């Protein structure tokens, strides 16, 4: 297709570079009449995130200028991104971008900017070459005598630089950095900093930092060099800290001059742009702390804005209020219960029922201990929906859990109530879709299939999300759109720390269940330290054998399926070991992991649930809601590979009947290590709420609520338990912006940040 450029256009480089591969960012209409197209673009009324960025690029302001161009093509859509969310490959090159994505999950400029240094160091003191001691961090002054480049035996590029201070010499060595030979030419003079090492009885500096000068550096230049603070990043062999620092500098250069206008305010915080630069290049500790505090405010503001934005949109809708009926499904169900509900269950239900009686859509989180009876509270809420001739859906993250919920529900309802309510199990097959669409089925239990466009509800009025952290914001929104502003109840077996709950009460209603049901058995937890006592491994096998001989069942959990270089225990290795152990000869072993088909997983769970197998060898798939009352023991191998919340969730799978349980945390972590301390803590603490408080203090990135390890942790600095003033300032700022602009039509850059920066994060998943 031919085209001609009538007039060249000149935009800022930061605008021209970012042509997106998708159509989710900023659209410009390019028509045969380019002038008309640009004018049309400048006066677009509909919201399109980032349109102001284009306007600022096109309008002659601050030294920018343009001349108009036209392309003789049919009208088409061209998409441009804001620099913060552009692909890092545009700035770092494809090779480095691929490395950053593979090793650290970094794909956008904002990911690089928020990949903060894990620590900072100062350069070593100025030292003469004659006084160098291996192991010391030093700064030296010298002149390059010669350079030599060659390939090593393995094919790596090796650069050796001979440096002299006039009396002695030292070697500077660089691997995979041939480009450094361009400026480290004979005669070059400068300052060099690094750690002194020794090779073949010769002292050297490997990959030193340096700054070159036209002549020998002055005392002032040396002092300034030594006082600089050096950022050190979490790195790996393939991508060392200095490479990351280089990539970060490219990202900082890309956003230079960009203004995050929605953060302007008089709270005394540093601008976001400056804070990003300072946290990577601080001049002193005072400036560094100011940058951290400002970025905490930035993170808090995005969080508060997202919560406030979603809450106000939800509150504008009108939901169906539920009325309790005498002799209805709920009352008849309560009469069938063979046990008394705990006070916490009754209080939580009253709070939920009060919300459901209003025309404002409920958004409530019910959290509590594993096995505390959250599902029963949810069932009662769904029965209240059925009493009002409305539909309720309970969504579980796995087919195994969905089937378990359906099985327990039909058992608890009894034949008569089941016939009237017609609970349906929806697992991606179309068996019950007609019954659901017609409204005959009042309660639906399903997995991700309920989000499908093929799933149509008659009058959905209540959505219950079990293990809600396993579902994304988009999925939840899709489901809510299937009804007429349905109420939303989210369940979580990961208790939320009290300090976090208090800071979020303005945005989401929270109910908690702390008291376990009466008759719940005790669980004892013990650490098995193989590093100091390898013989205890035999005791673990003996304990498994004892439980099986008593007629009980055992969970054995491993972090990975196949053996890997990490040294973590695997399902495949444990299966061989268990099958070859004389004490366990004759024991039936079932497996459960992600590489099995759905049918194989179902078969394994069915075998274990009905008692046909003695041992269930599994990954963390059993973490979610598996209920086998006869299972009395759990062995978690390589337990140090799991987090506090995950370990607590796992051990909640045992002791679910009236039989006491034992959980063994097997580890090779040495005594005194952080991993070992974490296991000792779990072993002596059985209160999930206490563990949640401790867990939050130990975590300082986005996973504050123990909701998984995936995704970039966008909350790297914010401490919800400590930064109460920052959260308060951020909330006031968010309310000020959204008071007259709830759709963010005047703050399009903020809307872009909320849609991009918060998308998929753990906290946004929880609180959406």
TrEMBL record:
<keyword id="KW-0227">DNA damage</keyword>
<dbReference type="GO" id="GO:0003678">
    <property type="term" value="F:DNA helicase activity"/>
</dbReference>
<dbReference type="GO" id="GO:0006281">
    <property type="term" value="P:DNA repair"/>
</dbReference>
<dbReference type="InterPro" id="IPR014001">
    <property type="entry name" value="Helicase_ATP-bd"/>
</dbReference>
<dbReference type="Pfam" id="PF17191">
    <property type="entry name" value="RecG_wedge"/>
</dbReference>
<feature type="domain" description="Helicase C-terminal">
    <location>
        <begin position="536"/>
        <end position="702"/>
    </location>
</feature>
<keyword id="KW-0547">Nucleotide-binding</keyword>
<keyword id="KW-0347">Helicase</keyword>
<keyword id="KW-0067">ATP-binding</keyword>
<keyword id="KW-0234">DNA repair</keyword>
<dbReference type="InterPro" id="IPR045562">
    <property type="entry name" value="RecG_dom3_C"/>
</dbReference>
<dbReference type="InterPro" id="IPR047112">
    <property type="entry name" value="RecG/Mfd"/>
</dbReference>
<dbReference type="GO" id="GO:0005524">
    <property type="term" value="F:ATP binding"/>
</dbReference>
<dbReference type="Pfam" id="PF00270">
    <property type="entry name" value="DEAD"/>
</dbReference>
<dbReference type="InterPro" id="IPR012340">
    <property type="entry name" value="NA-bd_OB-fold"/>
</dbReference>
<dbReference type="InterPro" id="IPR001650">
    <property type="entry name" value="Helicase_C-like"/>
</dbReference>
<protein>
    <recommendedName>
        <fullName>Probable DNA 3'-5' helicase RecG</fullName>
    </recommendedName>
</protein>
<keyword id="KW-0378">Hydrolase</keyword>
<dbReference type="InterPro" id="IPR011545">
    <property type="entry name" value="DEAD/DEAH_box_helicase_dom"/>
</dbReference>
<dbReference type="GO" id="GO:0003677">
    <property type="term" value="F:DNA binding"/>
</dbReference>
<dbReference type="InterPro" id="IPR033454">
    <property type="entry name" value="RecG_wedge"/>
</dbReference>
<keyword id="KW-0238">DNA-binding</keyword>
<feature type="domain" description="Helicase ATP-binding">
    <location>
        <begin position="355"/>
        <end position="513"/>
    </location>
</feature>
<dbReference type="Pfam" id="PF19833">
    <property type="entry name" value="RecG_dom3_C"/>
</dbReference>
<dbReference type="Pfam" id="PF00271">
    <property type="entry name" value="Helicase_C"/>
</dbReference>
<dbReference type="InterPro" id="IPR027417">
    <property type="entry name" value="P-loop_NTPase"/>
</dbReference>
<dbReference type="GO" id="GO:0016787">
    <property type="term" value="F:hydrolase activity"/>
</dbReference>
């Amino acid at each position: 297709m031919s085209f001609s450029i009538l007039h060249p256009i000149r935009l800022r480089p930061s605008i021209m570079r970012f042509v997106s591969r998708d159509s989710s960012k900023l659209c410009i209409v390019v028509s045969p009449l380019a002038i008309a197209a640009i004018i049309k673009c400048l006066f677009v009324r509909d919201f399109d995130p980032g349109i102001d960025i284009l306007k600022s690029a096109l309008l002659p302001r601050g030294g920018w200028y343009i001349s108009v161009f036209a392309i003789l093509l049919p009208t088409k859509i061209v998409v441009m991104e804001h620099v913060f969310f552009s692909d890092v490959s545009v700035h770092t090159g494809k090779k480095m971008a691929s490395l950053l994505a593979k090793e650290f999950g970094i794909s956008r400029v904002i990911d690089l900017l928020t990949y903060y240094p894990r620590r900072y160091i100062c350069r070593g003191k100025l030292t003469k070459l004659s006084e160098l001691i291996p192991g010391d961090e030093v700064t030296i002054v010298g002149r390059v005598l010669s350079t030599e480049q060659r390939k090593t035996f393995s094919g790596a590029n090796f650069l050796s630089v001979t440096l002299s201070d006039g009396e002695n010499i030292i070697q500077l060595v660089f691997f995979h950095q041939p480009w450094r030979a361009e400026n480290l030419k004979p005669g070059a003079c400068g300052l060099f900093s690094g750690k002194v090492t020794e090779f073949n009885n010769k002292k050297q500096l490997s990959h030193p930092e340096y700054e070159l000068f036209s002549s020998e550096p002055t005392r002032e230049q040396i002092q300034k060099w030594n006082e600089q603070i050096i950022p050190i990043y979490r790195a790996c062999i393939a991508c060392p800290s200095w490479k990351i620092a280089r990539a970060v500098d490219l990202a900082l250069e890309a956003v230079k001059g960009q203004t995050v206008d929605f953060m302007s305010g008089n709270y005394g915080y540093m601008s976001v742009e400056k804070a990003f630069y300072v946290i990577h290049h601080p001049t002193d500790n005072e400036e560094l702390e100011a940058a951290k505090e400002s970025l905490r405010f930035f993170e808090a503001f995005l969080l508060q804005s997202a919560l406030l934005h979603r809450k106000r949109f939800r509150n504008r809708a009108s939901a169906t209020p539920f009325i309790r009926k005498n002799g209805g499904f709920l009352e008849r169900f309560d009469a069938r219960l063979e046990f008394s509900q705990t006070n916490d269950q009754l209080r939580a239900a009253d709070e939920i029922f009060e919300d459901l009686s209003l025309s404002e859509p409920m958004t409530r989180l019910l959290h509590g201990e594993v096995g505390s009876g959250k599902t029963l509270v949810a069932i009662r809420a769904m029965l209240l929906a059925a009493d009002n001739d409305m539909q309720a859906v309970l969504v579980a993250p796995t087919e195994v859990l969905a089937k378990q919920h359906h099985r327990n529900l039909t058992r608890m309802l009894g034949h008569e109530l089941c016939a009237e309510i017609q609970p349906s199990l929806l697992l991606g097959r179309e068996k019950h879709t007609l019954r659901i669409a017609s409204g005959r089925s009042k309660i639906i239990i399903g997995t991700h299939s309920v989000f499908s466009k093929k799933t149509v509800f008659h009058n959905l009025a209540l959505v219950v999300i079990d293990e809600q952290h396993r579902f994304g914001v988009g999925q939840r929104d899709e489901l809510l759109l299937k009804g007429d502003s349905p109420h939303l109840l989210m369940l979580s077996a990961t208790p939320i720390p009290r300090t976090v709950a208090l800071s979020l009460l303005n945005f989401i209603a929270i109910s908690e269940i702390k008291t376990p049901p009466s008759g719940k058995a005790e669980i004892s937890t013990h650490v098995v330290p193989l590093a100091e006592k390898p013989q205890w491994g035999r005791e673990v096998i003996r304990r498994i054998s004892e439980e099986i001989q008593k007629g009980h069942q055992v969970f054995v959990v491993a972090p990975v399926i196949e053996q890997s270089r990490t040294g973590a225990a695997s399902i495949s290795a444990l299966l061989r070991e268990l099958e070859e152990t004389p004490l366990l000869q004759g024991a039936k072993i079932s497996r459960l992991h992600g590489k099995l088909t759905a049918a194989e997983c179902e078969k394994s769970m069915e075998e274990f649930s009905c008692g046909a197998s003695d041992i269930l060898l599994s990954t963390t798939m059993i973490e979610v809601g598996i209920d086998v009352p006869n299972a009395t023991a759990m062995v978690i191998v390589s337990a140090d590979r799991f987090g506090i919340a995950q370990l607590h969730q796992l051990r909640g799978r045992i002791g679910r009947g009236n039989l006491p349980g034992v959980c063994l945390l097997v580890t090779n972590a040495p005594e005194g290590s952080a991993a070992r301390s974490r296991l000792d803590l779990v072993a002596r603490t059985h209160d999930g709420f206490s563990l949640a408080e401790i867990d939050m203090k130990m975590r300082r990135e986005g996973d504050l609520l123990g909701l998984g390890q995936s995704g970039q942790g966008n909350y790297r600095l914010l401490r919800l338990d400590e930064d109460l003033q920052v959260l308060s300032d951020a909330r006031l700022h968010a309310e000020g912006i959204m008071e007259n602009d709830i759709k963010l039509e005047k703050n399009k850059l903020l809307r872009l940040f909320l849609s991009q920066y918060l998308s998929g994060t753990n906290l946004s998943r929880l609180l959406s």
